[in-house]
From TrEMBL:
InterPro entries cross-referenced by the UniProt entry: PAP2/HPO, PAP2/HPO_sf
Keyword Transmembrane found: yes
Species of provenance: Streptacidiphilus pinicola
Source organism superkingdom: Bacteria
SMART domains: acidPPc (SM00014)
Pfam families (UniProt xref): PAP2
Phosphatidic acid phosphatase type 2/haloperoxidase domain mapped to chain residues: 121-228
Lineage: Bacteria, Bacillati, Actinomycetota, Actinomycetes, Kitasatosporales
Protein name: Phosphatidic acid phosphatase type 2/haloperoxidase domain-containing protein
UniProt keyword list: Membrane, Transmembrane, Transmembrane helix
The UniProt record lists the keyword Cell cycle: no
Listed transmembrane segments: 43-65, 85-113, 120-139, 151-170, 182-201, 213-231
Length: 243
């Protein structure tokens, strides 16, 4: 028999009036995680490799003000863009500027609420914020410049757009209940597409060296999964009855 007021399952014994009450688990009390359990291992490995690339490129590029060998090989001799490519590049660049970034983060945060609830929205906002803070600190630490004294390593635009793509792909993966392989493929593909588009725009506009864009992509790949894990740990630890 089920109690109408609390939903508990009540069993009445045949001898006497002994009753046994067994509470049903409250599924709603456990919100879906920001980082799906199936993706923790692969994204943890990707984050570690990304951090390694950022450190290695940072050491090589420290205090430089000119492109390296890889940059010279990747970057075309002329970065002049014709329409409509220049318009597309400028639009992508705007999304990484303060006004564009705030608008984009706000839209994505609201859009993620139906997918996985408050944790998904928090991942968009906190993940974007920590990515910006990390790239800013790295720029001052590495000291690589372009066009005078403009700090360039790593690319903040590339890092931000990659982080936002990851922040959206993670709740989509969880909502679709994808397995480890399919989920990892979806998340990394989203990160690659966003990072490639943002990196292309920054390099084509002459705002960054190619290795700046690569480092920005790797920075997001490191910061965002760590942020998702931190959100899960913080929220779970604060839940009532959790020790």
């Amino acid at each position: 028999m089920t109690c109408a007021c609390c939903g508990a399952e009540v069993r009445t014994g045949a001898v006497g009036n002994v009753t046994e009450t067994r509470s049903r688990p409250d599924v709603r009390a456990t919100p879906p995680p920001a980082l799906p359990a199936s993706l923790r291992a692969p994204l943890g490995l990707a984050a570690a490799l990304g951090a390694l690339v950022v450190v290695l490129l940072g050491v090589v590029s420290a205090s430089h003000s000119e492109p390296g060998r890889v940059d010279t090989w990747v970057q075309p001799a002329s970065t002049e863009l014709s329409s409509p490519w220049r318009t597309i590049a400028l639009a992508l660049d705007f999304l990484g500027q303060p006004v564009g970034a705030v608008l984009l983060v706000g839209v994505l945060a609201v859009g993620c609420l139906p997918l996985r609830g408050p944790r998904a929205a928090a991942l968009v906002v906190v993940g974007a914020g920590l990515t910006v803070v990390t790239t800013t600190l790295l720029k001052h630490l590495v000291g690589r410049t372009i066009h005078g004294d403009n700090l360039s390593y790593p690319s903040g635009h590339t890092a931000l757009l990659t982080a936002l793509a990851l922040a959206v792909a993670l709740p989509v993966t969880g909502r679709a209940r994808l397995g480890r392989t399919a989920g990892t493929l979806l998340v990394l593909t989203a990160a690659l597409v966003a990072g490639a588009a943002a990196g292309w725009a920054q390099v084509s506009l002459g705002a960054h060296y190619p290795t700046d864009a690569l480092a920005g992509w790797c920075t997001a790949l490191t910061v965002l999964p760590a942020t998702a894990w931190l959100i899960d740990r913080t929220v779970d630890a604060a839940r009532p009855g959790r020790r």
